[in-house]
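[Meeting: bench + compute handoff]

Bench side (C.D.) handed over the final construct sequence. Compute side (W.E.) agreed to return the predicted structure before the next meeting so the bench team could plan truncations. Sequence as handed over:
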Amino acid sequence: MSLPFHVNIMVGRRDLQRFVLDAGEGLAMPLDLGEKMKVLENARIMSLSLLGTEIWGSCWKISFDFTTCLEKYKYRGAQTRDESLWSFVRSAS
């Protein structure tokens, strides 16, 4: 006889519970799973949704960090060029 049981899944820092059906050896699965399959499908959608949200949040943070570093690098390069040009002009005069 197939009995349902719960499995805990870790997604990022969230602990999800999932409803799983144990098929057992040599036993036929019931043809009408109806509500049980809906629970499995919703658990899969929920876990993918949470995982996607965490991945998107991480990418969003990384893009801002990269942009900030790029601006600092760009302005630092401009400052050194101006300073080196000024030192060249001072030494030439």
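W.E. noted at the follow-up: The mean pLDDT is 61. C.D. will use this when planning the next construct.
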